[in-house]
Amino acid sequence: MERIYDEDVCCCALNRIFGFRPRVALALISELGSASQVFRLSPKELDCLLGKDVKARQLICRQSLYEAAKELDGLYDKGYSFVFWKQTGYPRLLEECEDPPVALYVDSVSSPEEVFGRETAVAVVGTRDISDYGKEWCRKITGALSRSSPAPSIVSGLAMGTDIIAHTAALDMGATTIAVMATGIDTVYPSRHRAAAKRIASTPGCALVTDYPPGTAPLQINFIRRNRIIAGLSRAVVLIESKEKGGGMLTARLAFSYSRDVYALPGRIDDVRSRGCNMLIKEKIAESIMSEKKLVESIGLRFREYTGRQDPARTVKDVYGGKYGEDNIGRLSRIVLCIKRNRGITIEEIAESAGMPYKEVLEYTAMLETDGIISTDLMQRCYIRLK
User: How many CB atoms lie within 10 A of CB 376?
Assistant: First the structure.
């Protein structure tokens, strides 16, 4: 059997053909039993199934399969994963939605089964133009979720404002996070988040995810469609701040239509960035967030109090935030998180785990030790010093 009729290749081709109409592709797969059977239909059979959809009929051909196979081979060579509908590893909650994507491209050091196999995922979304009040509560809420038991994956969209704060807060707490992109898996938007995206993709259990083929540009319509995946992946959606219209509002309403729990942070009635949240609460679409503890328990998780112990990654930001750029802060945070998770880890082991040159890790650990964040012994084993 030719490689072009493998199920991953056929699903990839159908995703490219019906990307904006996944229901059509999924209906064909359900009707025929597999994606490969779609490409074995005769022109007459395709006419019966697709009717006046001339463009789709023309694209369901061997050439589309050759292009899909070439695309996937290139992605696999670069270490990306590809998981399709009904395949083991495809997100179970997303599969239950009425309009899930045919397939997902995944950039992660972990397998799709590990990334999507967690018992709970919670989306934290909101406006790009986030206020200081929103930033504070975004970190508080993400921190409380990250400390809860079992700790959920934090899902968001890698955008400026609320999204990147949620992703970063989760990583700093040692939790997992999933960034759903509105571009191809090979394009990070905005470009200023490349370091954060690399950090997500290189952290076990975390991932960059998209249903758009490689090379897809960040068009506005893509962000709108992307939101259904954020909502579909998550058991609950938390809206931090939003105007009456916006991506966060759309994600919250989609989540409600998927029978997910929706929570919104209430704000001042004269603050335009809180109008969306207040509206959803009034319409009884969202439950008002009154405290981190009540939110965590409402989602069905066990709340764990903050013990007062300093978080090393947070301390890194506080100490070096005014001195170094985001790339350096990200590297320092990765090092302290490696030490936090593996007490007594050596500098050589940190370099291997964090994917950084040994010399670079040696310089950073010397800096961290000088500033009292870590300590090292004669065997180059590292320990967190914070109380």
Answer: 17
Burial state string for 21-47 with b = 16 or more CB within 10 A and e = fewer than 16: ebebbbebbeebebbbebbebeeeebe
The tokens describing 65, both together, are 């399969």
Which CATH number applies to 112-299: 3.40.50.450, 3.30.70.330, 1.20.120.80, 3.40.47.10?
3.40.50.450
Please state the domain extents for the chain: 3-77, 112-299, 312-384
Q: Which helix (H) or strand (E) holds 104?
A: strand 103-107
Per DSSP, the residues of 168-197 read HHHHHTT--EEEE-SSBTT--SSGGGHHHH
Which residues, listed in sequence order, are joined to residue 13 by a DSSP beta bridge? Answer: none
Query: What is the full per-residue pLDDT of the chain (387 aa) written as tens digits?
Result: 478 899 999 999 999 999 889 999 999 999 999 999 999 999 889 888 888 788 888 899 999 999 999 999 999 999 999 999 999 999 999 999 988 999 999 999 999 999 998 879 999 999 999 999 999 999 999 999 998 988 899 999 999 999 999 999 998 888 899 999 999 999 999 999 999 999 999 998 999 999 999 999 999 999 999 999 999 999 999 999 999 999 999 999 999 999 999 999 999 999 999 999 999 999 999 999 999 999 999 999 999 776 555 567 777 877 787 678 888 888 998 899 889 888 889 999 999 988 899 999 999 998 888 777 888 888 888 888 754
Say how far apart CA 281 and CA 33 lie, in whole Å: 43
254 Cβ partners below 8 Å, 6+ apart? 227, 228, 231, 232
CA 66 to chain centre: 30
* Domain 312-384 is found in CATH 1.10.10.10: yes
Residue-wise DSSP of 318-360: HHHTTTS-HHHHHHHHHHHHHHHHSTT-BHHHHHHHHT--HHH
